[in-house]
Design goal:
This protein is of the alpha+beta class and about 130 residues long. About 20% of the residues lie in helices and about 40% in strands. It has a single domain (about 5-125), classed as 2-Layer Sandwich (VC0802-like).
Amino acid sequence: MSTLTLKLLEETFAIHSLASDIDIPKAVFDAPIFFIAKTYEETSIVLPQAINIPSDEVEKDWQALEVVGPLDFTLTGILSKISTILANEQISIFAISTFDTDYILVKSKNVSLATSALISNDYQII
């Protein structure tokens, strides 16, 4: 696989946990970027931290690295390789996949270490 480029997004994100039967707050849909996942047990919402919504729990201070895409569905191991590099540095991640690409969220305090580790492993960061 050729060298991948990751783009560090400017926003700081919050990851919210809500009940599975909750109505999604309108503020989420007004956000410039957001991610929603719903299971039988819960609803997770990721959105810029500056946008406040009521939630059962919230994890703040995450930054996102976007794998510059679009990525072909035949590509394999993208998240695995990135997560292994970061795990070797003791950096936990929150991964999100979309139709076109992947996003890897790391705590803001770990962004410098994460980007350095990825650059050391032939990733480009823009």
